[in-house]
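Re: the request from the purification team.
They wanted to know what the chain is likely to look like in 3D before they choose a buffer screen. I agreed to run a prediction and write the result into the notebook, where they can find it.
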Amino acid sequence: MEFKRLKNTRDLGGLVMKDGRKIRPGMLIRSSYLAVAPAHDLAILQNTVSDIVDFRTEKERQERPDPEMAGITYHAQPVLADMTAGITREEEADKNEIETYLLDPDGARQHMLENYHLFVTAPHAQQCYSDFVKLLAAPRDKALLWHCTAGKDRAGFAAAIVLSILGADRETILTDYMKTNAGLAREIQWIYPMIEKQAGILTATMREALDYMFLAREEYLLEAFRTAEEKHGSMDAYLIESLGVDDAMRKALQDRYLQD
């Protein structure tokens, strides 16, 4: 799948699991928001996707609604029920975050780490990710696509959940997660000059803070893993206790999505 505009949209097909099996192509797709998709990209999605999971808040969906596509079922699963700066990418959230953390890189970093902690511990997030796993198990003829706004944080942790269930090692999960920075390169190139224009200056401290806010960093996803291990003993235990992924469901999902 070669998209013209959806640069942070990618098929997980071909990734190799610890047992040597690979994810079947054309079945599991992660993405950023779809509102900017041109006709070429929409045609690809309509031909390949049957279900779309949208992890954004209601306000995000209103500001940048996904295009309606015949034959595709939409599932709204707002992982963070309220505006959360740096994650939800609502217009107000972005503005507030930049004002709060632009001169405080360490504060920006700690804020992002706390958000990844909440992905694991917040009851509403647990319910949304549990519902997402149930959709993974539901029968369909085409791919399941999931996204948030940037495709970095909420969608990134969802991808980590999927890969953990299917049996990927930590390195494979982190490598896929970090690919997001290449996918977001166009957006980042636009954001930084915009902030410089608004502020009249862009110092090294300000750029560092923006990097923490807008780039994927391994330590963020590792914080989610650390939290799951601290609260549940292991990532596998988190999958069982918080998301309901028992051995039978894991095997069924692996049989469905993996091939030799």
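For the purification team: The mean pLDDT is 92.
Please add any questions underneath this entry.
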